[in-house]
């Protein structure tokens, strides 16, 4: 059974990401944890004095707890998949600390979060919370654009930079998440200089690869331009990114205009960490 953490702030982006996750994992046995984190610097004095008899924790979280209960109940009532179950979690803590505690306590396998999908800076593209997850949480993470309607992921683009290896734990994590979908894999190897040894290494790994795939090797162009061009001539439903801190994501955006960025980041991303 997969244990999946659905992060929410009750925004349109979060609701859409949750809907995507329910469809994405519809073939699998899943326990979903719907979680809201109220950060310590988010409270107002009016929240503290609403009920002077209540403790501070209850005062801060009363409205959010009620909204979370309603959201969880709605998921249970509308999602008729017998293989899915739901729980809700709420915490008053540092955002990353709260997530790490839940990952350890509930043995979470995958995180799901939304992102905004268009801007010229990473923090606004993803939102500060989702960007913190990408940078710091070492679990496979699905990040879904706010306005992206679910589409069965029949094709998966895997952009590979100089330091990415197909013979790696990270790539195996991508395979594990995608196992129930059996997509066509589009491997796009982009290197700074011509590297025949890297092509040979990829070929040796792909000889053992049992899935449906295509492989393309490009050198001397930016990763961003290679990915954007590839997406324009191929139907891609999802991108699988191996993240070493921000290496691939940074390269996807280096030297890019707002228009280019929003086009290249409109797809859902499956991010795994080195």
Shape: elongated
Number of strands: 10
Strand content: 15-25%
In which range does the helix fraction lie?
40-55%
Give me the strand/helix succession.
EHEHHEHEHHEEHEHEHEHHE
Strand order of the largest sheet: 3-2-1-4-5-10-9-6-7-8
The multimeric state of the shown protein is: single chain
Average pLDDT, to the nearest integer?
A: 82
Number of helices: 11
Structural class by helix and strand composition: alpha/beta
* Unreliable spans: 44-49, 118-125, 255-263
The Cα radius of gyration reads 20 Å
The first-to-last residue Cα distance is: 24 Å
Major pleated sheet: 10 strands, mixed
Properties at a glance:
274 residues; 11 helices
């Amino acid at each position: 059974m997969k244990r999946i953490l659905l992060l929410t702030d009750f925004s349109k982006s979060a609701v859409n990401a949750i809907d995507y996750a329910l469809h994405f994992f519809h073939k699998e046995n899943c326990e979903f944890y719907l979680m809201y984190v109220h950060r310590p610097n988010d409270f107002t004095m009016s929240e503290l004095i609403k009920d002077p008899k209540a403790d501070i924790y209850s005062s801060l979280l009363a409205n959010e707890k009620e909204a979370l209960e309603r959201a969880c109940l709605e998921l249970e009532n509308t999602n008729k998949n017998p293989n899915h179950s739901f729980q809700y979690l709420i915490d008053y803590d540092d955002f990353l600390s709260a997530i790490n505690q839940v990952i350890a306590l509930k043995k979470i396998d995958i995180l799901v979060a939304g992102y905004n999908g268009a801007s010229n800076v990473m923090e606004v593209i993803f939102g500060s919370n989702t960007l913190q997850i990408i940078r710091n949480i070492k679990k496979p993470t699905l990040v879904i654009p706010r306005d992206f309607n679910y589409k069965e992921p029949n094709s998966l683009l895997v952009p590979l930079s100089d330091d990415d290896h197909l013979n790696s734990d990270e790539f195996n994590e991508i395979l594990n998440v995608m196992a129930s979908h059996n997509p066509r894999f589009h491997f796009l190897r982009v290197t700074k200089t011509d590297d025949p040894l890297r092509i040979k290494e990829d070929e040796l790994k792909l000889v053992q690869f049992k899935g449906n795939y295509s492989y393309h090797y490009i050198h001397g162009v930016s990763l961003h331009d290679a990915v954007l061009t590839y997406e324009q001539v191929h139907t891609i439903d999802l991108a699988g990114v191996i993240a070493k801190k921000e290496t691939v994501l940074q390269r996807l955006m280096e030297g890019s205009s707002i228009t280019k960025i929003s086009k290249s980041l409109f797809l859902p991303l499956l991010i795994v960490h080195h």
